[in-house]
Design goal:
It contains two helices and 41 strands. By secondary structure, it is mainly beta. Keywords: Signal.
């Protein structure tokens, strides 16, 4: 009996456990998905049951008719594999359509001076350019001058009054042309405005250069300060750059302002751009990478130089520096007016000597060396009351000056004459040779060759030939006598000098034998030297110059050959 009871209990317990395993397996299957949904879940057969309390093996429970599955082991949930995010394909940016161009015409007070133009655009996009001429938009306004062009959408766009191509900056691009009314010429103040407009219109298309008259001088300009080699940042007010306008630094003296190697005089702005001027008239755009540099040197003592002239109607002084640094020197030039002389030159009451640099004007240079204090220069001119006429008959071949005597004195500007006579007919030449009739062919006064009569018959009598010398001196040569002398003639000339305010010297003169053929070149153009050959003797060229005499000594040659050295080629 007891044995049957134990078997009943064992069977009951087995059935309860089987029922519990089945329930648990169902719960896991419903709540947890397998790692691979495609796999089929397999359950295991249950193992043998536990032994009873007596230690005897429990009887094997026969399988159920419905094949109850054995519960499976808990399935561990696996994390899903990370999915690599793929970049989205680039979206091509579509250009913005520019559909309309709007052009306004206003004066400086923003009042309309011409009807606004609105023009539809076809197949145009932002950032493209359009040309006003191609669109047939007339920007001329009668009675007004264009002064400025603005883009109302984008103030970074930079246009000049000459610009024709404009950038489209939006769906509706708005351009504004600003004009100034042309003033009435009768109104002085409005004429000044007209001058400003002229300056504005003078701006070159690329804005690299413009008139300084339109540069703004209201801003401070950034510069570099170079103090004896030490550089730092600084500023200067726009306008002329001088020692007075440059910043002051103790112990330093302003020298100049430079951009690169150029010394500049002026700085200003136009449309927020900096311009500088070398000549004080034309502004040059300060390019990227360029700096305006104010140069200073260590201050040293400087001393003033003053000039005192006794009579400025008697001469001129080309002054040197009005301030000289200690230990340095300065040069000045003194030139007396024609007819006057330099009587004396002193520096601080001490006479100094000069060097004549132009004999024709007596211009003289003077140097003050090693300046160590204030310098006072006094120049005294003197009007020359009289001058001398001099000559040496030994310098006049085959002739003589008969009057006045050499050393004759004439007054400042006085007209005087001297008489020049040829040798007698048949008289032998100076130095020997054949005698005959002697014709005047050369006369030199104060180093200048004088024009002479070229005929020697009665038709030449009393017909003066004139020569103008520098400084207004006039020389006239007139044949006054043609005297029969045996088989020929001798000649007398009167030479008149007018307006001379200097010493007059007859440098040389010559009378040639009447039967001797000569050539004298009086003027050349584009030729440096003359080479002369007598009688086809091309192997014996002689170099000649203005007023040199080329003669046929044997009186039989009929051919004269010349060759020249060209100075210019036309």
């Amino acid at each position: 009996m007891m044995k049957h009871l134990k078997r009943f209990v064992a069977i009951t317990i087995s059935m309860v456990m089987a029922f519990q395993f089945c329930t648990n397996d169902f719960y896991l299957y419903a709540e947890t998905e397998p790692a691979d949904p495609g796999q089929t879940q397999v359950t295991n057969e249950p193992e043998s049951g536990p032994s009873d309390s007596t230690g005897e093996a429990a009887e094997e429970t026969p399988p159920s008719d419905i094949g109850t599955p054995e519960p499976s082991a808990p399935v561990e949930e696996q994390p899903a594999a990370p999915v690599e995010e793929q970049p989205a394909p680039p979206v091509e940016e579509q250009p913005e359509v520019a559909s309309t161009l709007k052009v306004e015409f206003v004066d400086v007070n923003n009042a309309s001076v011409k009807e606004t133009v609105e023009q539809a655009l076809k197949s145009k996009y932002v950032k493209e350019t359009i040309n006003l001429d191609e669109l047939e938009i007339d920007i001329n306004v009668e009675g007004y001058t264009l002064t400025e062009v603005k883009d109302k959408n984008d103030n970074t766009q930079f246009y000049t009054t000459e610009t024709k191509d404009f950038v489209l900056t939006g769906n509706v691009t708005e351009l504004q042309f600003v004009y100034e009314k042309i003033p009435d010429e009768s109104n002085d103040s409005e004429s000044e405005n007209a001058k400003t407009n002229e300056d504005l219109n003078s701006i070159q298309k690329n804005h690299q250069e413009l008139s300084v008259n339109i540069l703004s001088t209201e801003q401070m300009i950034s510069v570099k300060i170079n103090r004896a080699g030490t550089e730092e940042d600084g500023q200067i007010a726009a306008g002329n750059i001088t020692e007075e306008t440059a910043p002051k630094y103790d112990g330093y003296t302003f020298v100049n302002a430079t951009v690169g190697n150029d010394v500049i005089q002026y700085v200003g702005q136009y449309n927020d751009r900096v311009y500088y001027s070398i000549d004080g008239e034309t502004g040059m755009l300060l390019e990227k990478g360029q700096d305006i540099v104010l140069n200073y040197e260590v201050t040293v003592n400087t001393y003033p130089v003053t000039y005192i002239i006794n009579d400025e109607t008697l001469g001129t002084v080309q002054k040197g520096a009005d301030k000289v640094r200690e230990g340095e020197s300065t040069t000045f030039r003194v030139t007396p007016n024609y007819g006057n002389t330099i009587e004396s030159v002193t520096v601080n009451e001490n006479p100094i000597d000069g060097k004549v640099v132009d004999k024709s004007t007596n211009a003289t240079d003077y140097v003050i060396n090693n300046v160590t204090g204030d310098q006072e220069v006094k120049i005294n001119f003197k009007k020359t009351e009289s001058f001398q006429f001099t000559y040496d008959n030994g310098d006049i071949r085959q002739g003589n000056i008969t009057s006045p005597e050499s050393g004759f004195t004439f007054q400042n500007g006085e007209t005087f004459s001297f008489t020049l006579k040829s040798k007698e007919y048949g008289e032998l030449p100076d130095g020997g040779g054949k005698g005959g009739e002697w014709h005047l062919n050369q006369l030199n006064i104060n180093g200048y060759y004088i024009n002479l009569p070229t005929s020697f018959d009665n038709s030449a009598l009393n017909k003066p030939v004139s020569t103008d010398l520098p400084n207004g001196v006039v020389v006239e040569v007139e044949m006054t006598e043609r005297n029969k002398d045996g088989h020929g003639y001798n000649f007398t000339y009167e030479v008149t000098i007018t307006g001379a305010k200097e010493n007059i010297e007859v440098t040389s003169g010559n009378f040639k034998l009447g039967g001797r053929y000569e050539i004298i070149i009086k003027e050349l153009g584009g030729i440096e030297a003359i080479y002369y050959g007598e009688g086809n003797k091309h192997n014996n060229w002689k170099e000649k110059y203005i007023n040199d005499v080329m003669s046929d000594d044997d009186e039989v040659h009929s051919t004269y050959d010349f060759r020249f050295t060209l100075v210019t080629w036309l």
